[in-house]
Amino acid sequence: MAAHPRSLKETLLRFYRLTHERLLTAAEGLSPEQFVWSAGLSLHSVAWQLWHAARWDDVIASYFHRALGHDPRKQVWERDSLAQRWSFPAESMGLRDTGTKMSDEGAEDLRFPDQKEVIRYAKLAFAYADEAIELIPDDLLLAVPKDDPDGDSRLDNILIYLEHLSRHLGMIESIRGLEGLVGSSTR
Fold first, then answer.
1. What is the mean pLDDT of the chain?
2. SS3 per residue for the chain
């Protein structure tokens, strides 16, 4: 019996969900001390890596929801007032308060809440991103939005963010290895 081929969107969601699952599993399998341990200024903690990956998924999900006219349109980060709840200094966490272009010293100074709270946020942001991808009609995946400064299609942007997630999964795997744990998330 021949298998039914997946649609492009089904394939994208499959790999987004797999990467999300691997990020969460790698973070959940750590002690609270291992979760916040930093290997130095340029290799931030698993807490930071997971938060940063979730922040960008939250940003892109919010963008797609807004662009497609669907609710909810606000980021989980904003809806749940997490910057305030976590006592993170607003507008000092780099580009769009995501950690991008944040100084290494600033990243190291962030004090994350309980591990379960960071993972809870990541789960919500990842689900929001999955939902946003599901909302995109197939015929719009290859369309370039008028407001995209780089001329990237929605598909381009989805793949850019999937690659971003994979880079931070690799960072988490490296940190786990430095901590003496199995680094690979695929074993």
1. 90
2. CCCCCCCHHHHHHHHHHHHHHHHHHHHHCCCHHHHHCCCCCCCCCHHHHHHHHHHHHHHHHHHHHHHCCCCCCCCHHHHCCHHHHCCCCCCCCCHHHCCCCCCHHHHHHCCCCCHHHHHHHHHHHHHHHHHHHHHCCHHHCCCCCCCCCCCCCHHHHHHHHHHHHHHHHHHHHHHHHHCCCCCCCCC
Task: Check which CATH number belongs to the domain holding 173 and give it.
Answer: 1.20.120.450
pLDDT tens, residue by residue, 4-21: 888 899 999 999 999 999
Q: How many domains does the chain have?
A: 1
Residue 56: give the domain boundaries. 8-82+114-178
